[in-house]
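User: what does the whole thing look like in 3D?
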Amino acid sequence: MSITSEAETSLAEQPAPNTAEAADGHQHVASGPSVTGETSTDRQRLHLALAVGNVFTWEVDLATDALTCSPNVAEILGFPVGPTLDSAMSLVHPDDRADLQQWFQRGTAGRPEFDAEFRLVHPQTGDQVWVRSRGCHVPVDGASDRFIGASQQITDQKRQEMHATFLTAIQRDLSGSADEEAIPRAVAERIARYFDFALLTLVEGDANGDPTTVIYRHGPDDGQTVDIVDAVQPAGTLVPSLRARQTVTIDDALLEPGELSGTAPFEGGAMRSAILVPSAGNRRWTLLLGGYRRQPCHWRKDEIETLEDVTARLRLRLERVRSEAARRASDMRYRTLTGSIAEGFCVIEMLFDDDGTPVDYRFLEVNPAFERQTGLRQVEGKRILEIAPAHEAHWFEIYGRVAITGEPVSFEQEATAIGGRWFEVDAVRLGDPANRHVAVIFRDITERKRADDAVRESEARLRRAIAIETVGVVFFRDDGVITYANDAFLRMSGYTTEDVGSGEVRWDTITPPEWMPRTREANEEFAGTGRMAPFEKEYLRKDGSRWWSLCAATRLDAREGVKFIIDITGSKRATAEQARLAAMVDFSRDAFIGTEVDGTITSWNPAATRLFGYTAEEAVGMNVLVLIPPGQAHERERIVDQLQRGEVPAPLETQRLRKNGSRIDVEIRPSHIRDAAGRLAGVAIVATDATERRRLERAQEDFLAMASHDLRSPVTVLRGRAQWMKRRKTYDEAGINVILDQARRIERLTDDLREIVRLEAGKIDLERTMIDLRKLVSDAADRLRIQQTTDRVRVITPAAPIAGLWDRDRIGQILDNLLENAAKYADAESTITVEVSRAENEARISVMDRGPGIAPAELSRLFDRFYRVDGAGAAGGLGLGLYISRMLVEAQGGRIWAESTLGQGSTFTATLPIAS
Ligand code: ADP
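Assistant: Here's the predicted 3D structure for the full assembly of 916 residues, as structure tokens:
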């Protein structure tokens, strides 16, 4: 709108139409003083236009500083302006004054155009009124410079403009950042500036409408102003209003004492006016804006609406930012989770055929672990059957069920088409059921499965091991209680499963007392090292009998151990048997020789040493051929041949060589030594000294020869004498004596034979009577004298009787025998001395002759049955006399021996115990 200076000048002088009621929208143009020279219609039209345009005119006289406005000024601005420019300047908003002043200065400096926008402040209410003034400098005669112009009240436009700018800026603030803290800060700063708030608070509330957090605070923090959090208390009317999302205002705290004006910001008059704007969607307020001014004010509807609008936008933006942040966070978490988890993850879309049967699925999304777990690459968008055509139908069934029912599943399954791997899978339906999306999280458990299988296998193996029939297996606790025993152990120990179950079968109850120390030692070893080295011990069976075990243990865990037990009772018996056998072999009178097949000697017993003269050390390792006389090696070969054929060779009587080179008669009984496979591993030889047997055999032969001779010759003599007397038919004294003598000889022989039969049968009946040996000896000497008709016998007896409880006849028999031998083997005329003496508790009878004597080697053998010294010749008897004598002496507790010097004679001594 362009206003000419003339018009403005004239207008300024005219009162403006009364437009007092313009505010209510009804414009009334009041009639005022007429403008000279113009039609009243024109003037009225102009005034009307000015009023409608909210325009008033003015004139400033720079000389007098007087300001003259058209009368409608108060109506347009709400307050009068003038009368001086200075006083008008005081109404100008301080921020705009300098600007305005410049316009005036510029005008006087030759730039007459004047066009300024500025604010005036209502002197009473403090309300701001925007004004646009246009005018020009009018120099008049140099003395009276004036500015004339017209001003338009543009508050509404300005507000709308500013409002639009403000809202644009607010929108920029809101959208310019996604920062939860930066947004309210920027917005609050802008609101505070725009609304001239000295204090601004942004408070969050919870779903109940109770304040929780001050998210922003702008303004003095002088301790006088306290958070709105404190101001908004549940009691009173303020909170219900806020909860009902109603904006609460206070124009002047001093004039409107109330709940809000009683709060801290108003204390001491720090603040005078306030507005509280709650904002919420459809619930209780969640954001509360509090704006405070130091000055009282009148809260305009548009201000309130703007604040409500801005607060709502801020709340929405904050909610959006937060939900986006939350979504981003959860998205991030999701990405991070699916990206970082070791588990494979995928989202699949189930594909169904026309019948609704799940037949395939498509990968929509997979995480990095997916490839690692499955070995499948770049699967997104592809169907599983494209990738693994043999993928089993049961996968589709399972996932299809999840997609349809929405029930999550967890399962373990082998995917043979995907490398035969085992997977542990969790599947859950995702999102809209219609999409048939399934989220699958899975883990490759192939290794674990293998480990499981290995464990199962080893368990099975262990079970098989435990079930073994020959090894007892028991589980035991550290306190010694057996908690489990397998059948083998039950069989060995005689206990039952029930016994074990009762907890009464313990080490100490099944261990014999003498085995406890060893058992304790083993238990200590177990406690210390977790194992028990194998050892042998005896156990008690339930019935109290014993059994031998070989046992070893190892720890299972902190409380239990397992013990393996083998029943070695049998082998122990065998060992004992072996030991007995070894002892028998050692003490045997027979030589035991073990050889390898090639003849190398491997064992050699003491009897072998006695027989052959080699010690075991010398013999072992030597070849047995060394013992075989030259030219007889074939004997050994034949034996080995027979053994190898599996035959048992007959005992062999042969000769062998002694260490000293002499030959010895032996009887050899060879037998097999077999290895585990039953093959011939060697030859066992039992060699018996056959010398004795050979001698016995010879003695028996001699005996038979002699017996027949000794019996036949007296019989021949008897028959000769008897025939001779029959022919002569005469009694012949000498002939009778010969007959008697021969008869006695037969008697003697038969007595000896009878005696020996009795002795051999161990039947000697002693008839003990108190006898004096002196009498028996002299009787025997007499008998010999009569028999021999010589007096070559000398008897030496002590003065005192030598008496004892002895068998008279048996002692007589011994004496007869010794005396007859002496008479028989010594020279016919040599003296025979028989002496009886006493030495301590025994009586001694010695018979001494001056005969040929006996070789020392023969002495000990004289008393053997049938033993006769070689060359004793016909003088000898059956070799039984001394044998019988020894038996009779020994039967009465005595001894008998011979002493002799070859060529000088022999002394035979018998002792008899004298009972005390
Ligand atoms: P025999 O019937 O042969 O006499 P004996 O047992 O009485 O049997 O004697 C055994 C052997 O002892 C005799 O064959 C003889 O060689 C020897 N003998 C016994 N007594 C004497 C002796 N007084 N002097 C020498 N040799 C004797």
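In plain terms: The chain has a mean pLDDT of 82. Residues 821-822, 825, 849, 851-852, 854, 862, 867-869, 872, 876-883, 906 surround adenosine-5'-diphosphate (CB under 6 Å).
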